[in-house]
């Protein structure tokens, strides 16, 4: 018995030694910066002309909450995350189903290969292509013959629509490839069942495709979330576009601005720390909401509610 305990202890110690470099890296590059940012975000300098006098309070947070630029940054990031990401996922799913049932196998493989090849193109090139269509050159507006624009002209659409459109532009190919592969895998795995039962398209989606899509849905959801929340406006806006004047900040660009980066930089590190930590907490909250809205989680809630109702009925009958 003692030998078994010592062996288990030795195995646990060996496993700990193997993963200790990873734990150290997580501690140094993830947890420590978060705690340092939290600590520095409370360091408030009451006098702008000196950095030798300071106190610890919520003064930096009050400053960012009173800043209209920060309000717009929250709005732009939130709308881009939900509208841009969910529309990209919805259209990608629709296109994946359409590709699977309408296009021939050879054409389908060629099309997906073409879509997949864009992952080997740099994000910088993707941003340039987007600005050619929707930026100041206005190729998209010329094709439609519309007077409305995003970044110039008297008739401007809200900037969060521009960001949401870029999120759609960037995330759609990624979502499409993963959805199409999941649907193709489902058709291959359950081909005999589909033929024998003569399932309709809606039945395939409900009973066959949904099981395979759930396996890749979290990856799609998390990747889209990262795309949207880390959006930096400077990548898709011209240098002549004033981010502050046009209320075009995202949470990322707002925090970077007060760390001395981006357009119109300002060296107010304490304000940048407060913005960065609040952004971290807010984005964790958004991620939690997105995870709660997953179809699998909603199913669990519905099943739990049904079981709870069934138990309560049995108790009442007794």
TrEMBL record:
Localization terms from the record: Cell membrane
Keywords: Cell membrane, Membrane, Transmembrane, Transmembrane helix, Transport
UniProt membrane topology term: Multi-pass membrane protein
First-listed, main subcellular location of the protein, grouped into a coarse class: membrane
Parts of the chain that traverse the membrane: 12-36, 82-99, 111-134, 160-183, 216-236, 273-293
GO cellular component: plasma membrane
PANTHER family named in the record: ABC TRANSPORTER PERMEASE PROTEIN, INNER MEMBRANE ABC TRANSPORTER PERMEASE PROTEIN YCJO
This protein's name: ABC-type polysaccharide transport system, permease component
Protein species of origin: Mycoplasmopsis bovigenitalium
């Amino acid at each position: 018995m003692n030998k078994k305990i010592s062996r288990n202890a030795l195995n646990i110690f060996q496993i700990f030694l193997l993963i200790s470099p990873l734990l150290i890296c997580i501690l140094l590059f993830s947890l420590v910066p978060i705690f340092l940012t939290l600590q520095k975000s409370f360091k408030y300098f009451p006098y702008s002309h000196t950095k030798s006098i300071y106190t610890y309070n919520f003064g930096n947070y009050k400053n960012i909450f009173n800043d209209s630029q920060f309000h717009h940054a929250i709005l732009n990031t939130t709308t881009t995350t939900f509208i841009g990401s969910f529309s990209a996922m919805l259209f990608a799913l629709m296109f994946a189903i359409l590709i699977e049932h309408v296009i021939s196998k050879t054409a389908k493989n060629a099309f997906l290969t073409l879509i997949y090849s864009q992952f080997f193109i740099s994000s910088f090139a993707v941003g340039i292509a987007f600005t050619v269509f929707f930026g100041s050159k206005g190729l998209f507006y010329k094709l439609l013959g519309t007077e409305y624009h995003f970044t110039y002209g008297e008739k401007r659409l809200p900037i969060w629509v521009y960001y949401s459109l870029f999120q759609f532009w960037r995330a759609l190919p990624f979502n499409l490839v993963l959805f199409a592969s999941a649907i193709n895998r489902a058709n291959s795995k359950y081909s005999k069942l589909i033929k024998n039962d003569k399932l309709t398209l809606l039945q395939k989606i409900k009973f066959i495709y949904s099981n395979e899509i759930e396996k890749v849905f979290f990856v799609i959801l998390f990747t889209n979330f990262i795309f949207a929340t880390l959006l930096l406006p400077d990548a898709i806006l011209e240098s002549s576009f004033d981010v502050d004047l046009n209320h075009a900040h995202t949470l990322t660009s707002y925090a970077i601005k007060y760390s001395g980066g981006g357009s119109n930089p300002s060296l107010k590190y304490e304000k940048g720390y407060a913005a960065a930590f609040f952004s971290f907490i807010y984005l964790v909250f958004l991620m939690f909401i997105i995870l709660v809205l997953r179809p699998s989680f909603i199913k669990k809630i519905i099943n739990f509610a049904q079981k709870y109702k069934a138990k309560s009925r049995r108790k009442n009958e007794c």
